[in-house]
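Handout, page 2. Input:
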Amino acid sequence: MYKAFFELDKAPFSMTPNPEFLFLSAKHREALAGLLLAVAFKKGFLVLTGEAGTGKTTLLGRALQSRMSKDQRDFSLINNPTLSPSEFLEMAMIDFGIDDVPPNKPQRLLKLQKFLLEGHRAGRISVLVIDEAHKLTPEVLEEVRLLTNFETPEQKLLQILLVGQPELSTLLNREDMRQLKQRVAIRLKIDPLESNEVEQYMNFRWARAGGRMLPPFTPQAISLICRASKGIPRVINAICDSALTNAFGADLKLIDAAQILDVASDLQIDLSADVNAAQSNGTAAKRNQTQPHTPVPAPASAGAYEPVPMTFRSLERYMPKPAKTSKPWTLRSRTS
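Output:
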C-alpha cells in the first residue's frame, strides 16, 4: 500500500517470518551459531526458547537455508505440534520423505530406523525440527524422548531441535520430564532487543526493503516504539507497519511521537504514562491532515544508501581454524 509512497521495493515490517529480514542481534547470532553447531557436530538434542515474537521461527528459517544445512542433511520440520503421539510420528516420517507410512507403530519405528541407518551409512545427518514445541503434550514429548534411542555406539542417528516459548523450559523442568531434560546437549535463549538495538533493527529492515534513506521516524517516535514494543520484533513490526500505513493515508512523509501514540492506542498497547507526559508538555495532538511533506533527515554525507551484507562469527570458537572476519552490517553512502 505505502511502498511507492516511501520509495520501497518491499514491505519492510511484514509480519511473516522471512529469513531475508532476520536482524542478527548478539543473542540471535549466538542462537544461530548454536543451531548450526548442533547439526554440524551431531549434538543430539537442542532446546531454543524465547518470548513470543522474538524471531525464533525466522531464525530457524535462516538456519534451514544456510549452506551448512544444504549439504548432506535430511530435515523433517513440524511447525504444528498439536498432534497425538501417533500423528506426530506419522508427520515426522512424511516430512522426511518416507513413502507409504505403515499403519501401526512397530512397523513405523522399524521403517524410520531403517531410514536413519541408511542415511548414517551414506554420511547424511537426519534432523527433526519441532517449532512451537511448548505446545507439545507430555505424551508427545515422551515419544520425542524415545526417538533419541535411535543411535549407534558412537553417535545419535537423529538430531532433534525443540524450539518454543519459555513455557517449554517449564515443561522440561517437570519431574516426569527429567529423563528428557537430561538428554538436552545445548540450551539456547533469545531475548528481546535492547533499547539501542531497536533503531538498528528498524534501519536494517528498511534497507533490506530497498529504502535508500533512513526510515521516516523521528528520534521521539523511535523512543516510543522502543518502549511500546519492549524490544519484541513482532510488536515493532506491527507498530511500524501501522504507522507507515497511517502516514500514507494522511500524506505524511515523517512519523513523529503523536502518530506512534495513535497507533499504540489502536493496537491497545498501554502507553498512558507517555500520553500524560506529552499532554502536560502540550506536544500531543491529533494528526494534522494538512501537514506538509517533511523530508526524511539524511546524514551529513547525503545520498542514497544500501545495505552491506551482515555476517556473524560466533561459530569460529567451535571451528579448528578461525573464519575470515568481516564488517558488521551498516548503512553507507553509494557515493562514498
